[in-house]
Amino acid sequence: MDLKSNHPAPVLTDPVPISKSRLGIHSSLLPYSPGAAFSSGMYIAIPRKKVIPSKLDDVRASGWLDAMKSSSPPRKKLTKDTSIDVGPDDSQLVYLSWMLKYPSAISSFERIMNYAKGKRIALFLDYDGTLSPIVDDPDRAFMSDSMRTAVRNVANYFPTAIISGRSRDKVHEFVGLTELYYAGSHGMDIVGPVRPSGNDDNNSNCIRSTDKQGKEVNLFQPASEFLPLIDEVFSSLVEITKGIEGAKVENNKFCVSVHYRNVDEKNWTTIAKSVHEILKGHPRLRLTHGRKVLEVRPVIDWDKGKAVEFLLDSLGLSECEDVLPIYVGDDRTDEDAFKVLREGNRGYGILVSSVPKESNAFYSLKDPSEVMEFLNSLVRWKKSKI
């Protein structure tokens, strides 16, 4: 989606406080207790002086190698049949036990939809590992035609956005649908709708623009001042890792990803030290982990959870009691969005994983094929109500 604008980069403003209570999902509809209530501002503040943990705390906590291993657990293939009568192995038993806490969103579909009656669903989707399989070459993480059809169909009935760590342009290229809203760089580059109230004209966070179809949209880039620094670090990381076989550095516009999926494990420490060496001179950047990827990001208080809040507000849905947000994702960065929905009793997070792991999500799906099944079920459910 190309954008045209002559406006300067957005400058962030203080939030407008909201005291009105958020959505309340009754505890009987949740797999387990959701925790404390949560509220947030209509516009999200990004404090520059807030004390944020050191960019290397995550790595130093357990050592470079341990942190890299823990962020990328092996993905064991499990059968789709959840019956234990056929003698599943230990990993299947552990997974089935884990699903007591994170039930399948497919087997729990009727339960979810019972709560959705009379509500407007807003759908948020990660890309890699959710709509497309995890592959060795990140440039070939293509979604299937059947998945694209499923996403197009669901977007015809529900407001739908993709929130990815990829650059917005890259994920738009992969998906190729104009019916959606896109947020790249973990929500630091958002194309969203113009708010129905028209108050965006007074919000310097947003740049009013148009897409290729001539539709008015808002471009929100809270880390725009970091662009020159990100480009500089990208070039440095390409240079310093070029001698490490299998390493791949990806410029995602507002963050840089260093993929080590194809790097021999004995060289993982070398990868981590190379990234550390670059970051030592850039205190305004921090290091986070994904699945077999190290990500260099700006030190600002912004993540996928705040991107969900921003998009809900842009859609005019943030203060509505009849809205059910659903977020589907598979990686650690998606936990920020799950947490927002859980703490506010506002909606459902659905974790895509074939291995047990702790999460802020309410439900689970095993893999992209189950994600597609869930999306198709949403469409059938909506059609049955029309």
Summarize the structure.
It comes from Coptis chinensis. By secondary structure, this protein is an alpha/beta fold.
Structural write-up:
Its EC number is 3.1.3.12. Removes the phosphate from trehalose 6-phosphate to produce free trehalose. One of its GO terms (biological process) is trehalose biosynthetic process. It catalyses: alpha,alpha-trehalose 6-phosphate + H2O = alpha,alpha-trehalose + phosphate. GO terms for molecular function: trehalose-phosphatase activity. There is one protein chain. With 386 residues, the protein is of the alpha/beta class. It folds into 2 domains: 218 residues, HAD superfamily/HAD-like (Rossmann fold), CATH 3.40.50.1000; 73 residues, Trehalose-6-phosphate phosphatase related protein, domain 2 (Alpha-Beta Plaits, 2-Layer Sandwich), CATH 3.30.70. The chain is 30% helix and 17% strand. Strand 9 and strand 10 form a beta hairpin. The longest helix has 18 residues. The radius of gyration is 21 Å and the shape is globular. 42% of the residues are buried.
How are the SSEs placed, and which strands pair?
Elements: H1 57-60, H2 64-70, H3 90-98, H4 109-116, E1 120-125, H5 145-157, E2 160-163, H6 168-175, E3 181-184, E4 189-193, E5 206-210, E6 216-220, H7 227-241, E7 248-251, E8 256-259, H8 268-279, E9 285-290, E10 293-298, H9 304-314, E11 323-329, H10 335-343, E12 348-352, E13 363-365, H11 368-385
Helix pairs in contact: 5-11, 7-8, 9-10
